[in-house]
Amino acid sequence: MRLVFPQGAIRILLSCLFLIFFAGCSDEQRAAPAQNASPPLPACKIVIGLIPEMDIFVQKKRYEPIARYLSQKTGAVVELKILSRYGNILSNFQSEGLDGAFFGSFTGALAIKKLGVEPLARPEYDGGVSTYSGLIFARKDRGIKTARDMKGKVFVFVDKATTAGWLLPLYFFRTQGIKDYRSWFRETYFSGTHEDAIQDVLHGKADLGAAKDHVFYRLARENPRITEELEILATSPKVPANTLAVRHDLDPALKNIIKSSLLSMDQNEEGRRALAQFGAQRFLATGVEDYAPVIEYAEHIGLDLATYDYVND
Asked: Do 209 and 193 form a contact (C-beta atoms < 8 A)?
């Protein structure tokens, strides 16, 4: 005898299967569209944090295509949360209910050590670039060419939880024999973003500073004054570009869907449109081993990432 199930029972069964699949992605569940279902089946919410690399409105607009794409591919509601400073992405990771974040290389290394996050993927930009360097730059009219010329000047950092805007300048100072930067410079301060550090030097608030090369050259394309009035004094070795890493206890099936969705974006038209809006060509698989250079820099200047205090002073 052939068993025939009512259509309503089939819908209930499918709903249960979807709920089981998405149970590990978040404690809070909300409605999101699902295929062949009316009304929409319940789905989870994924909260992804963003560091304040640039103007927060520009930052959010840039990442929104990636969030929409992941929402469509995973069936989850992907929400972006921009935090006020770099270190907040570590101290507030759990209190803000973040499931993952696009960490900078230093915050990523710190999060691996302190929170046990799992890196998934990072963007590759034009020319096959998936890393970045830190720059130390100065106003050309300040006559700064060497470390000795920096003495008594005003230096602007970005944040104590950045690689390009803090860790790599300290590494540079150490190699140049500057043991105590506070006594070497007349004044030092933190700008909060790479953009602001560059703008502060451009407008004379600081004599020199440090920032990420991607941001420097992007601003230079928009404002020729940057290359006309600023001079690059030092360039650091390369470190991984901002990488999406997720909490270690996120549902393994969801981790796989997020990672595979990012890595295959360049293989479909919808994904390529989102990548173009984001400004990248594709995403590359990224692991803990990619953070080895950052860990080496930290060790060279005596920083223990597991206990490091990243609060600006």
From this structure: no
Collect all residues with Cβ–Cβ distance below 8 Å to 258 and sequence separation of at least 6. 46, 70, 74, 100, 120, 244, 246
Q: Which residue has the higher pLDDT, 292 or 250?
A: 250
Instruction: List strand residue ranges (DSSP E) for 158-223, in order.
Output: 187-190, 208-212
More confident residue, 121 or 294: 121
Q: What is the pLDDT of residue 101?
A: 93
State pTM to two decimals.
0.72
Length of the chain equals 313
Cα–Cα nearest to 243, from 83, 134, 110: 110
Domain 7-125+240-300 adopts which CATH fold? D-Maltodextrin-Binding Protein; domain 2 (3.40.190)
| 300 sits in which H/E element | helix 292-300
Tokens of residue 217, six digits: 């050259």
Q: Which CATH number fits domain 134-236: 3.20.20.140, 3.40.190.10, 3.40.50.150, 3.40.50.720?
A: 3.40.190.10
